[in-house]
Amino acid sequence: MDNPELARIPGVNPHVPDAARIYDYTLGGTHHFEVDRQAAEFMFSLVPSTPKWVRMLRACLRTAAQRLSAGGYHHWVDFASGLPTSDHVHSVLPNAKVLYSDINPLTITTGKHLLGGNPNTRYLECDIRNAGEFLHRPDVREFLDGERRVAFGANAITVFLPAEENRRFFADLYEWAAPGSKLFATFETKAPGLSTPKWEQFVGMFQRMGESFHLYSLREYLDMCGPWTPGPGGVMTVREFLGLPLSHITEEDREGVGIEFYAVILEKR
């Protein structure tokens, strides 16, 4: 069923699919329209394990927020945030300052509506390819109370950036952050050389939308993250990060191409 509250937000078009709403539907949320559900279901027809992996990624984000909060991190800067629904970072960290960002103005408008007047949250426009400039903005500094020892969120981002843009993104964050800062990131990989017609169609769908879509090896991802260093626990599969049993991921979930997702909390020493 369509969300009537969502339809009343200025600029929202219920007849054109939106990436943030498609993601919300994939997560099992309620902020979407029939056109978004149809687009998502087409994706699922190509890669049926998509909802399972996406929900595990969101669970990893929440778990990382909990761990970092317990470690004394009370300022969170999240990139490519999507819709800040009730299962996002601010719901895990109600007393922390949470700064969301996205490049899509419609996502930002919708996000501000969802956050209401929550004084501990802010939603600002940011192109992650210019993350360094974003972090130096006066409104960012003001919201973060001038704090630079922060926790960053970069969940499900790297696959949409070419290698050099990934390197610049992680380097910009490292240059700005104070020592002791943390960075939660996730990486998607597949087995080298393996593909299927449905997988090629899945990747082509992003490319037709003008999106970059690149899978790298785990070693390449960690190289792009330099000079950030994996913290205690190192790099884990998302299953391991969440403490789930080995049987939670099946061969069917790997879609014939060896899909694997990793999670890591990086640090600036």
CATH superfamily: Vaccinia Virus protein VP39
Order of helices and strands: HHHHEHEHEHHEHEHHEEHE
Which topology does CATH recognise? Rossmann fold
How many runs of DSSP E, i.e. beta strands? 8
Class in CATH?
A: Alpha Beta
Primary descriptors:
alpha/beta; globular; 14% strand; eight-stranded mixed beta sheet; 41% helix; 12 helices; 8 strands
What this model shows, in words?
This protein has 269 residues and is of the alpha/beta class. The protein has one domain: Vaccinia Virus protein VP39 (Rossmann fold), CATH 3.40.50.150. Helix content is 41%, strand content 14%. The chain has 12 helices and 8 strands. Strands 1, 2, 3, 4, 5, 6, 7 and 8 form an 8-stranded mixed β-sheet that branches. α2 packs across α3 (34-46). The termini are far apart. The model has no long low-confidence stretch (mean pLDDT 96).
Provide the fold topology.
Elements: H1 4-7, H2 19-26, H3 34-46, H4 50-70, E1 75-78, H5 89-92, E2 97-102, H6 105-115, E3 121-125, H7 131-135, H8 138-143, E4 151-154, H9 163-176, E5 182-189, H10 197-208, H11 218-225, E6 229-230, E7 236-237, H12 238-241, E8 260-267
Parallel strand pairs: 1-2, 1-4, 2-3, 4-5
Antiparallel strand pairs: 5-8, 6-8, 7-8
Helix pairs in contact: 2-3
